[in-house]
Amino acid sequence: MKNTWPLLVMLVVLVVMSVLQWSSISASILSLSAWLMMACLSPGIAGRAFDSGLIDYWIGGVVWVVAAVWLVRESRKAIRHPESRSRSSTALVESPAAGLLALSVFVSLACPLIVPLDPNTQGSLLTTRHLPPFSKGIVVEKIGEVNEETAEGLVYTAFQRARNHLLSREISVSGIVDSTAEARQPDVSEVTREVMFVLGTDVVGRDVLSRVMYGIRTSLSVGLLAAIGATLIGVLAGMIAGMFPGLVDTLLMRLTDLFLALPVLLLVIGAVAFVGQSEITLILVLCLTGWMSIARMVRGEVRVLREREFVLAARMFRLPMRRIVVRHLLPNVVPVVVTSAVLQFGNIVLAEAALGFLGLGIQPPTASLGNMMGEATAYMSVAWWVGFFPGLILAGLLIAAHHLYEDLPERPHAGSPPLGPQ
Amino acid sequence: MLFGLVTLIFFLSRLLPGDPASLFLGPNIPASVATELRHQFGLDRPIAEQYMLWLGGVARGDLGYSFIHNQPVIDVLTRVFPNTLLLGLTAFFLEMAFAFALVTLAIVYRHRWIDKAISTLTFVTYSLPSFWVGILLLWLFSYKLNFFPPSQMQSVGVEQKGMIEGMADMIRHLVLPALTIAIPGAAGLARILRTSVGETLSQEYILAATSIGLSRGRLISGYVMRNSLSSVVSLLGVELGVLLTGVLVTETLYAWPGMGRLAVMAVFARDYPLLLGCCILTGCVVIIGSLAADLLHAIIDPRVIGASEQ
To answer: What is the ipTM of this complex?
Structure first.
């Protein structure tokens, strides 16, 4: 069964974004290539010109190029050979859920390039507060000067120009188009441009669309890191419990049951309260509260596997335990682990958002989908869009994760979909 | 199990860095006061002794002293817990009602578009974050349509009115929070139930019952549902935990004076005894709940007892 529409959607999204944000995309690619060229020619100048704020943009630019090349290749393949397609990309192209997740990964990596406005720039409170979706505004940006006379030459000038474009500071954002444009006498170093607040603005006049994009970035990075951590702990605990039946097994499984009996969110809240609310503690806590289901799954799998003939044979040959675990058990556990890790990823993203919603997760002004919704609740009666859109995106992410979980072939047949922390 | 839970909570709370006394007092208090306070709370004794003391306290129902409420924790919890119970039970019954209604509809029209629509609907709803559902309900029913009050448990001044009006007022306040918890929960439950109904339908005794000529209604209510129930009941323990975490967010959103809100407030106020108390109470409820679910499972489905004896 060929399903090409996710590919088409992705292609259209990429083209539209490229057209809309062409200046920053080209600037980031240009600055990266100019800097690399400088680094080759004269490392000293390159070192001085380096700005850590640029790395974000460079990653975005590289991701952009990679995505564009990949999409074009895929669509050419889809057109020329509609029947055959390489295996690795098939899953991404044909499952809408995987496509959506890939798209959100792309957005989160490339968000500095895509956002129409800086997510933390506040607008003027009089004119920009709680603007409804699709209202227009005007932004005045301060752009650093380019000294054309420098002896460094063409490459350096190009680099500086691109850098200044990327790192230009937004000095005022206003919701009223005419008066601001007339009132401000544009400086030489100031550039005025019109923007559209596609998803409106929040209580201090920040652009909701930009914040949502950075929110996706926060959710995904926390979710992915915590899911990986939880999976590692879970696999380790499950392996140990499965390999050593008896006391160790009983103890570990008791511990797992205990952790399962604790309401995850309450545990996370407690831990965050004790340790403090930094991003790293948040990830650690989510790891520590998310490993149980994976541990159980792995233990069950290992207990079955260790009685299988190939493991018995390996043990008969007196292969070292390490080798049995690494070569015989782990590869067979991987499918189950991947599947439950996908589910756990969804749960962790949800838990992170719930924490943010309660004001205990990622702290503002850093945008996360949860804390945006938490901030929006108080103003729901006047500005529904501030809370609605982050939730919509979050729901989309969760639906995609759950859908991917259902799509994966190796679903643990424990009888029912495990329930997540709602 | 309960004992283990209490132990785990104690050691987790001691493992984590951060000194309750200095956090409680703030930075501008001289160290001698903190030392005295630590002595007063017994925080300077060896950990084993602290543990034994704490264990003894918990066994006697003494969970410590809440800073923000200036009362023993147990008093605060007993005052607040009925509210959470009310909300939780209402949500639970709504959840069950929705799930059963949906699944009955789905199997009556099985393999037709209604069945497919319901399965898509439950899949999507199951993935919705409850707090998002909550703010949407709040926006729609409270601000736009003005059907239900947005927060609190009672209107101001309702105590002066009669008993009946008081009840009606409370029910009006209950609707939105209960729905917020029930909607995603019901979808999850409906999905599990639908799967297990699907399995039941392919059993031979259903075929036999059909061939006897039982009416569709009798068949579904008496044979299919009853046999499918066991899968749902076995999950009730887990469901209870989910419910209680849902309560946490929902109570904060609707300012419902329950345990979830208490816990969140305890975090913001750094009131550790209260927070630990909430953790213990919730853990106990979950453990007792899953025990009850197991017993209920055995009552509904006698096959379980046979299976466990083998």
So the answer is: 0.79
* Mean predicted lDDT score pLDDT of chain A: 79
Test mutation, B15, B77, B131, B195, chain A, max A CBs within 10 A: B131
Q: Which residue has the tokens 């999905």?
A: B191
At residue A231, the pLDDT reads: 93
Q: Which helix (H) or strand (E) holds A138?
A: strand A135-142
Give the pLDDT score at A413. Answer: 43
Tell me the one-letter amino acid at A173. V
DSSP-derived 3-state class of residue B121? helix
Q: Per the CB < 8 Å rule, is B242 touching A271?
A: no
- pLDDT tens digits, B113-153: 888 888 888 888 888 888 888 888 888 888 777 777 777 66
Cα separation values, A92 from A7, B52, B65, B174, Å: 9, 56, 55, 44
The answer on pLDDT for A402 being more than 80 is yes
Give A412's pLDDT tier (boundaries 50, 70, 90).
very low
Looking at beta carbons, which residues of chain A come within 8 Å of B15?
none
**Helix residue ranges per DSSP H, B128-258:** 130-137, 163-201, 204-212, 216-218, 225-234, 236-254
Give B177's pLDDT tier (boundaries 50, 70, 90).
confident
Calpha distance B136→A186 (Å, rounded): 43
* Secondary structure letter of residue B41 according to DSSP: T
Q: pLDDT tens digit string along A179-229? A: 555 555 555 566 777 778 888 888 888 888 888 999 999 889 999 999 999
Phi, psi of B133 (to 5 degrees): -55, -40
The alpha carbon of residue A398 and the mean position of all alpha carbons in its chain are separated, in whole angstroms, by 13
Which of B267, B280, B287, B290 is the best substitution to test chain A (most A C-beta atoms within 10 A)? B267
Q: How many CB atoms lie within 10 A of CB B265?
A: 15
Residue of chain A whose Cα is closest to the Cα of B254: A377
In the block, tokens 């869009």 appear at A385
Is B244:B285 a contact under the CB 8 Å cutoff? yes
Q: Which of B128, B143, B235 sits opposite A380 (nearest CB)?
A: B143
A3 compared with A53, residue with greater pLDDT:
A53
A261 with B5: CB under 8 angstroms?
A: yes
A266/B282 Cβ within 8 A? yes
CA distances from A74 to A62, A67, A95 (A): 18, 10, 14
Cis-peptide into B302, omega within 30 deg: no
Residues B171-204 as b/e (b if ≥16 CB within 10 A, e otherwise) read: eebbbbbbbbbbbbbbbbbbbbbbbbbeebbeee
